[in-house]
């Protein structure tokens, strides 16, 4: 197999806060190969954004980051100066932030911001060519009347249009990797589809690998090749998208799947997993999921389960993953008898 485009091994991130040390991310490995879409999924606070932002060292100074490997195209990102990192961001790595309003400059037109990104990262100083490229990019991501919209400011764009502008900026310099942090979360369902379609198109056009952060399994099923499920700052399970949906081997993943609406029932909104994610300033001993797990036993309260292979390219961090083979997610959560499998 070829080397991964991005290789992260043993990533841990701690934040010093008044309430104690927050164990935001622990022992995360994440490799991404050229052209693939890897989804990171998990509830709020599970460490998705912190994982992604630590790749380009975009975390606040209160973060302590440790890792064994952090390389992009074979280069060690930890050895790069702030200036070198800036040339990676917006160049070979395009970032779509969770909140576009904080990422876009409110006093600069959308077109000028995209053009500036083009000029900054390419040898061209030709501002006219850069502006023309901004119009092309806005058109590519489905902004109507791009020639006019290019002269507008971010506040004149709707939420969905701002996300499209962020996608345009992220792909402006033909990136090898796109990091998209919850590009659709703040948007209503119809607008979500209108943002995902251009993201898909942008990904296909550039051939860029993509890290797609979301808490929406519907988005995962539609977009991703591979899935990383995070819980309490750790990887609970990871597999190819079809394998994960058809044969989940971690109770947390199964809980997420059990709360998905299904076609074979009138119930369209099921209960999510009972309980709340743990406080990461005081994470539970053993398996972090044990306070909410329907099959937790004594061992789970003391021994942390390692992430181990359970099938080809499929890993689970559950002591009892073998028992879960063939078990229906709804049955595990006592919702209803086994029926049709949810398939990707
Ligand atoms: N600057 C910070 N200082 C202290 N704790 C932080 C900071 N940033 C994040 N955290 C904590 O780190 C943990 C992981 O946060 P992160 O933002 O990665 O979650 P997330 O999975 O992206 O959640 P969401 O779905 O809400 O975006 C959380 O417990 C969060 O409170
Ligand atoms: S290790 Fe135990 S608590 Fe954790 S997911 Fe598996 S069964 Fe549940
Ligand atoms: Mg986040």
CATH homologous superfamily title of the largest domain: P-loop containing nucleotide triphosphate hydrolases
Shape: globular
Q: In order across it, which strands form the biggest sheet?
A: 7-8-9-3-10-11-13-12
At CATH level 2, the architecture of the largest domain is: 3-Layer(aba) Sandwich
Major sheet size, sense and barrel closure:
8 strands, mixed
Helical content, roughly?
25-40%
Class based on secondary structure composition and strand pairing: alpha/beta
Give the helices and strands as they follow along the chain.
Answer: EEEHEEEHEHHHHHEHEHEEHHEEH
**Mean pLDDT score, rounded?**
89
Please provide the count of β strands: 13
CATH third-tier fold name of the largest domain: Rossmann fold
Radius of gyration: 21 Å
Q: Strand portion, in percent? A: 15-25%
Give me a quick take on this structure.
The chain has 344 residues and is of the alpha/beta class. The protein is built from twelve helices and 13 strands. The chain has helices at 48-55, 82-88, 100-103, 110-121, 127-140, 146-149, 159-170, 189-206, 217-223, 241-246, 251-258, 329-332; strands at 6-17, 20-32, 37-41, 63-66, 69-72, 75-76, 93-96, 177-181, 209-214, 226-231, 234-240, 308-311, 314-316.
Fold blueprint:
Elements: E1 6-17, E2 20-32, E3 37-41, H1 48-55, E4 63-66, E5 69-72, E6 75-76, H2 82-88, E7 93-96, H3 100-103, H4 110-121, H5 127-140, H6 146-149, H7 159-170, E8 177-181, H8 189-206, E9 209-214, H9 217-223, E10 226-231, E11 234-240, H10 241-246, H11 251-258, E12 308-311, E13 314-316, H12 329-332
Adenosine-5'-triphosphate (ATP) is lined by residues 15, 17, 22, 24, 42, 44-50, 60, 62, 98, 215, 280.
């Amino acid at each position: 197999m070829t080397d991964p485009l991005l290789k992260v091994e043993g990533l841990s991130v701690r934040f010093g806060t008044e309430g104690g040390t927050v164990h935001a991310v622990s022992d995360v490995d994440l490799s991404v190969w050229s052209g693939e879409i890897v989804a990171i999924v998990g509830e709020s606070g599970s460490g998705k954004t912190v994982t992604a932002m630590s790749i380009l060292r975009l975390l606040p100074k209160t973060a302590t980051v440790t890792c064994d490997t952090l390389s992009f195209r074979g280069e060690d990102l930890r050895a790069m100066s702030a200036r070198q990192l800036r040339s990676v961001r917006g160049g070979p790595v395009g970032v779509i932030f969770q909140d576009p309003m904080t990422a876009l400059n409110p006093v600069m037109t959308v077109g000028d911001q995209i053009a500036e990104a083009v000029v900054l990262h390419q040898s061209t100083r030709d501002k006219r060519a850069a502006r023309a490229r901004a119009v092309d990019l806005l058109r590519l991501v489905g902004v109507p009347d791009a020639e006019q919209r290019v002269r507008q400011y971010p506040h004149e764009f709707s939420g969905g249009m701002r996300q499209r502008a962020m996608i345009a900026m992220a792909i402006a310099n033909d990136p090898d990797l796109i990091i998209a942090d919850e590009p659709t979360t703040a948007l209503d369902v119809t607008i979500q589809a209108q943002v995902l379609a251009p993201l898909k198109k942008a990904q296909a056009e550039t051939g860029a690998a993509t890290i797609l952060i979301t808490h929406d399994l519907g988005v995962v099923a539609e977009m991703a090749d591979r899935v990383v499920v995070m819980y309490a700052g750790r990887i609970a399970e990871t597999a190819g998208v079809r394998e994960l949906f058809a044969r989940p081997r971690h109770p947390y993943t199964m809980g997420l799947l059990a709360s998905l609406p299904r076609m074979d029932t009138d119930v369209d909104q099921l209960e999510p997993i009972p309980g709340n994610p743990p406080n990461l300033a005081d994470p539970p001993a053993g398996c972090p999921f044990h306070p909410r797990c329907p099959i937790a036993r004594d061992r789970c309260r003391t021994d942390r389960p390692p992430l181990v292979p359970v099938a080809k390219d499929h890993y689970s961090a559950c002591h009892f993953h073998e028992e879960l083979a063939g078990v229906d997610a709804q049955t595990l959560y006592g919702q209803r008898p086994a029926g049709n499998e949810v398939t990707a």
